Amino acid sequence: MNEGQASLVSHAWHVYRGTGEPHEGIEMLPAPPPWRVPSAAESPYGRRVLDTRLRGAVYQVTPQIVDVVNAALYLRRPLLVTGPPGSGKSTLAYHVAHELQLGRVLNWPITSRSTLRDGLYAYDALGRLQDANLRARTPDPDQGMSVVGRPAPPAQDIGMYLQLGPLGTALLPARVPRVLLIDEIDKSDPDLPNDLLNIFEEGEFVIPELARLNSPEAEVQVYDNPGERVRIKQGRVRAEAFPFTVLTSNGEREFPAAFLRRCLRLDLPEPDLDLLVRIVEAHLGREAVERGAALIEEFVRRRPTEVLATDQLLNAVYLLLRDGLGDGFRDIREGDGVLRTVLRRLDPGF
């Protein structure tokens, strides 16, 4: 152990000590925060943990949120949710899906390269061509030799190379609507909001690769369960119920009037002290509110002049509950180094 390692102080909550000496500290690692549990319900430590699909169960709403969500459900219109980072825009979709028992949320995260087709379906043309070439060179079982020029796979097999995207899956015929989350729409190419207009109005689309075939039907994969296949007729997907669509925006751009006219808009303000207390208690329990009271108050004090997100507060309070981390945490403005790092302001340059 070198001199720098010898000067390290190991605290009770440390799993990684920085000494380089192997140990079984990973067994000390507690269950993760409820919002950081993978979809698989079994943790690597052999303990049963919560499924993130239930994360919407603890979402804290306001009367305005309830009213606007119901309006969107009644009108079958998309809901455009704006608000600062960490204000719960995306989680609202999970909350609605959980309460109304609408199944797994179909999540379409948007980037600057996202196109309408990405949301509707993907076609692996190259994979189909490679398989066709391979089949053409497969030994003939009757002749015991390779036969170049063997017919390509039947046209119906094209469905093996097609997978519906989150938007396409949401438009499959179903008795009840699916919940579709189009996350951070303001990151998209300027054309994408306009490209969505017809989908929002008609609730249907055509897969040209299937429509041009003589075969009336093909089976394709779905987005949220690649092992499941659905039958598409004449290449057309038509919804029986419009999906409940939540589009989130950080307010970084303006959208065309035609796009806005087809959406209901919900602006999520930064939560006040009472709502923050409810959020912390819902996620971490009453003890977290009591032990983290000063931390919550400091968060509220700093927020008017600093960019901070609610999930930063949740992370800080979760760490505060770990044995040993909160020891000596007296003045939050001076702060423990770890908590100060977790609550670092998000303004550019900081």
Annotate the secondary structure layout.
Layout lengths: L2 H4 L56 H13 L3 E4 L6 H12 L5 E4 L6 H5 E3 L1 H12 L2 E2 L4 E2 L15 E3 L1 H5 L8 E5 L8 H4 L1 H6 L1 E3 L1 H4 L5 E5 L7 E5 L2 E3 L5 E6 L7 H5 L2 E4 L5 H12 L1 H6 L1 H10 L7 H11 L16 H6 L8
Parallel strand pairs: 1-12, 1-13, 2-7, 7-12
Antiparallel strand pairs: 3-6, 4-5, 8-11, 9-10
Task: Walk me through what this model shows.
With 350 residues, the protein is α/β, with parallel strands linked by helices. It folds into 2 domains: 61-267, 3-Layer(aba) Sandwich (Rossmann fold); 270-342. The protein is 33% helix and 14% strand. It contains 15 helices and 13 strands. The strands form 5 sheets. A 5-stranded parallel beta sheet has the order 2-7-12-1-13. Strands 3-6 form a two-stranded antiparallel sheet. A hairpin with a 4-residue loop joins strand 4 and strand 5 (145-146). The chain is globular.
